[in-house]
Amino acid sequence: MITTADLTRIDRTIEIKAPPERVWRALTNAKELSTWFQVTIEGDIVPGNEVWMTSECQGNVGRFRVRIVELTPPTRFVWQWHPGAVDPNIDYSKEPRTTVTFTLEPSGSGTRVSLAETGFNEISLARRAKVFGDNNQGWTEVLVWLSNYAESAV
After folding, report:
1. Is residue 51 a contact partner of residue 42, using CB atoms and an 8 Å limit?
2. Measured between alpha carbons, how far is 6 from 132 in angstroms, rounded to an integer?
3. At residue 81, does pLDDT exceed 60?
4. Which of 8, 1, 18 lies closest to 129 in space, CA to CA?
5. Residues in Cβ contact with 8 at an 8 Å cutoff, skipping those fewer than 6 apart
6. What is the pLDDT of residues 104-141, one digit of tens each?
């Protein structure tokens, strides 16, 4: 039986048939990230900066902040955010953030992208299971979006 104590991190890996530099650009160029991640980005993707991302998915609008933590071209991109922070009536600023880390490695067919989202153990018990479940499913879909985009734009 899975308990909320088990819901601490998400790990995903995908092989993308595109060179690391191409995948890196898709991840870290605001225009390209906006396209495949299906968001509008306000702000510059630079370490220490916070950007606003607005998602319009199936008629639902969600706006959330992402803090850019690290950019180490072309191997590591790290951001922090408040998972599930899409209700405009709630102030999430005092809540802990999770950390999302993309790691890129050359592989035989292109690039191996590993994604880890950590810090769910800091999220309140009232929200943890929902945001973990949403992101656990969501990252699987999002990595396919990244793969499709990077492979089609080689």
Report:
1. yes
2. 10
3. yes
4. 8
5. 118, 119, 120, 121
6. 999 988 999 999 999 999 998 888 889 999 999 999 99
